[in-house]
Amino acid sequence: MEIKEELITIVIPVYNLGKYIRNCLDSVCAQTYKNLEILLIDDGSTDNTLVICREYAKRDERIRMICREHEGLSAVRNIGSREAKGEYIAHIDGDDILERTYISYLYQLLTEYDADISMCSYIPLWEGREKSQKKAAGKDVKIKVMNREQALEALLYQKHFITATWAKLFKKKLFSKVEFPHGKLAEDMGSTYKLIHCSEKVVYSSKIQYYYLQRSGSIVHALSFQKGKDYLEQSEEMVKFIEKEYPHMIRAAYSRCFSSNIQVLSTITFFKKNDFSKKEMVAEITENIKKYRKNVLFNREARVVNRGCAFVSYFGIWVLRLGLMILR
User: Taking Cα atoms as reference points, which of 41, 35, 47 lies closest to residue 11?
Assistant: First the structure.
């Protein structure tokens, strides 16, 4: 007797992705898991993105389109979560590429381990280059099953997986309790830890099934001034949340927030903003680094790179900033 596949919704926000969306949609439509709703949400594109999406919608009846005026990524992801008809939701980015087994593998993990969230590994795909099958094959696959506290700790210490919404499959019910922060560019920083908090069990696999695009000339997906500001704000909100709900994990939250400040500091030179705004942000980051560095430096669970940055910061923020620029 054939077992009926449950409906899974893939939510894809699109905005001016005419150059990239075909590769993404080709990988989505070719999934070995067939019972899909492919929800394309156009956020007011001004290039040929919409034309391409409509072309694919005519070709594949599983594609459903929603067109909006430009509201930003967090609003579009929230629309996708509300409009999804599937019992499971996979949020992906419209310039990334999936392995053909991406959905089937995440679904298998989720059902086999009776989890609320399943996650896989990922690697960057540099623009203009082909996928590396050798890299994708990797070493022996490792699977880790975690309760919510274990998963939160792994997230905060940046072990196994990151805050990105992609490379994950969620039970839809989680989004009835959690929304992406409205109007914020760092939408995943403000939501992933809450989704884990609402779950009972999380399963992670080191198997690579997702390729996130690194565009030519980008600096880690080009953190903008506003995104950097939102990223820091959401990181501080996360610290407050952990302090209230999981006070025994506060040192892990400090480590993650410290890492956010280091990431923004390392890219601030490339922000297109006036010098006064940059100076204000550097001053804020400096205060945050001083606030968290002692905890991070003496926390053996913290990432080595974070502890190293905490140590260097004692010689002066300008020394740390110079070191980060050289490492870039």
Answer: 41
- As a whole number of angstroms, the distance between CA 43 and CA 215 comes to 20
Amino acid at 296: V
Q: What sign results for the dihedral spanned by CA atoms 141, 142, 145, 149?
A: negative
This prediction's pTM: 0.91
pLDDT digits (tens, 9 = 90+) for 40-79: 999 999 999 999 999 999 999 999 999 988 888 899 999 9
Cα distances from 194 to residues 72, 188, 241, 242, in angstroms, run 20, 10, 9, 10
Give the Å distances, CA to CA, from 199 to 171, 203, 237, 280: 9, 11, 19, 38
Element (H, E) at 128: none
Q: Please, which residues have CB within 8 angstroms of residue 93's CB and are 6 or more apart in sequence?
A: 12, 13, 24, 166, 212, 213
Residue 214: what are its φ and ψ, rounded to 5°? -105, 105
Burial class from Cβ neighbours inside 10 Å (0-12, 13-18, 19+) for residue 247 reads: exposed
Dist CA 6 CA 205 (whole Å) = 21
Report the pLDDT value the prediction gives residue 297, as an integer from 0 to 100: 97
